[in-house]
Automatic annotation (TrEMBL):
The lineage of its organism: Eukaryota, Metazoa, Chordata, Craniata, Vertebrata. This is Nucleoside diphosphate kinase. Its main location: other. Keywords: ATP-binding, Cell cycle, Cytoplasm, Kinase, Magnesium, Metal-binding, Nucleotide metabolism, Nucleotide-binding, Nucleus, Transferase. It comes from the Eukaryota. ATP binds at residues 10, 59, 87, 93, 107, 117. It is found in: Cell projection, Lamellipodium; Cell projection, Ruffle; Cytoplasm; Nucleus. It is an enzyme of class 2 (transferase).
């Protein structure tokens, strides 16, 4: 079915103009329609809130600091199976696993560490809904999506 997802190009990738351009081009080359796009810098507080589900994990502090360390680019993307397709393009969260199992994935090619892993993508319809409104508070997912 036609779906929406939230995709984020994280601070390490935005800091490199060629990497940012390459990732943007990959979005276009994969038949995603860019519904919204925004460059943002998070305060620490927004980073903590977005990743609250990871608050007990050993990597939480470094994740929160990293995601508030500089500009990011967020997109709302539409496509057939947008959530799964973007996640497949990204590859596994952990960079060394990505390099081993999916060497052409974005994280394998561009990721630096398990934390600085280049991109984010929603993992379900529910989290896409939450994450789209987190980044784009005036976006109304219910005007785009049928009830599932
Ligand atoms: P993301 O898809 O944005 O969701 C949670 C983030 O936490 C993940 O990408 C990584 O940036 C980070 N993360 C997840 N697992 C680890 C890990 N084992 N070590 C360090 N960072 C991690």
């Amino acid at each position: 079915a036609l779906q929406l997802t939230l995709a984020v190009i994280k601070p390490d990738a935005v800091a490199h103009p060629l990497m940012l351009e390459a990732l943007h081009q990959i979005i276009l080359d994969n038949q995603f329609v860019i519904v919204r796009r925004k460059d943002v810098v998070w305060r620490r507080q927004e980073s903590e809130k977005f990743y609250a589900e990871h608050s007990g994990r050993f990597f939480y502090q470094r994740l929160v600091e990293y995601m508030s360390s500089g500009p990011m680019r967020a997109y709302i993307l539409a496509r057939e199976d947008a959530i799964g397709h973007w996640r497949e393009l990204m590859g596994p969260t952990k960079v060394f696993r990505a390099r081993y199992t999916s060497p052409t994935s974005l994280r394998a090619q561009f990721g630096l560490t398990d934390t600085r892993n280049t991109t984010h993508g929603s993992d379900s319809v529910e989290s896409a809904r939450r994450e789209m409104t987190f980044f784009f508070p005036d976006f109304r997912p219910e005007e785009w999506m049928e009830r599932e």
